[in-house]
Task: inverse folding
């Protein structure tokens, strides 16, 4: 006889992760705010071939995006990251006088994140797990609850290897362009390896999640919400 008290609505680990990633990831506007200063920098440098002019144009673009956020009284989270990245790029470019050095912080950052992300998988604290945990409605009370579910950790490890591959591709493509001093192509690849590459990585993760059927070890408060989103009208 079947157990009628069993949580038949409990989603798989993959379904719950899809739900939480949807909650945790930002939308298209944050991606535009990250890419626009880069495009402005490349356009200004291509026009004048002057590092200072390109830097000023990129900084103005970043502050304009921030001002738009302030006027609309919306979060500065994504544009704040764009401001910081633009300021760091400007410092490197102005210090050396070489336009390609504006992209050096991003290349170094991708290499560092790639190593750190791979290391997080090796020690079984996968980076994707923290992103999944950020989407947990009970994260304030227990931000590391996902870590106590072995099935959740295993799935997050598989997803984190996708991030490792993304960072490796970024460095493998952009570092040779940096050495060649190809500013225009650095700008193009930085944009393409930004949000579009993230979208591709998320699509790969989604494909992995769609194929998996890993049962949860620990029920969570948002399990029913995730089940309803993926199985409307099942109750």
Result:
């Amino acid at each position: 006889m079947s157990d009628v008290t069993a949580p038949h609505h409990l989603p798989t680990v993959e379904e719950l992760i899809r739900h939480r990633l949807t909650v945790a990831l930002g939308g298209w506007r944050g991606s535009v705010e990250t890419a626009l200063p880069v495009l402005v920098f490349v356009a200004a440098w291509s026009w004048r071939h002057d590092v200072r002019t390109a830097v000023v144009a990129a900084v103005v673009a970043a502050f304009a995006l921030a001002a738009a956020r302030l006027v609309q009284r919306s979060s500065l989270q994504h544009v704040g990251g764009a401001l910081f990245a633009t300021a760091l790029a400007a410092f490197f470019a102005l210090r050396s006088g070489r336009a390609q050095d504006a992209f050096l912080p991003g290349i170094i950052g991708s290499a560092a994140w790639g190593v750190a992300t791979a290391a997080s998988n090796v020690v079984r604290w996968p980076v994707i797990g923290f992103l999944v945990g950020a989407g947990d409605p009970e994260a304030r009370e227990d931000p590391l609850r996902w870590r106590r579910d072995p099935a959740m950790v295993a799935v997050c490890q598989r997803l984190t290897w996708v991030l490792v591959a993304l960072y490796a591709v970024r460095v493998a493509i952009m570092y040779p362009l940096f050495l060649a001093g190809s500013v225009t192509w650095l700008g193009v690849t930085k944009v393409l390896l930004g949000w579009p590459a993230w979208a591709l990585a998320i699509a790969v993760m989604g494909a992995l999640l769609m194929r998996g059927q890993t049962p949860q070890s620990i029920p969570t408060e948002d399990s029913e919400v995730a089940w309803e989103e993926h199985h409307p009208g099942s109750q």
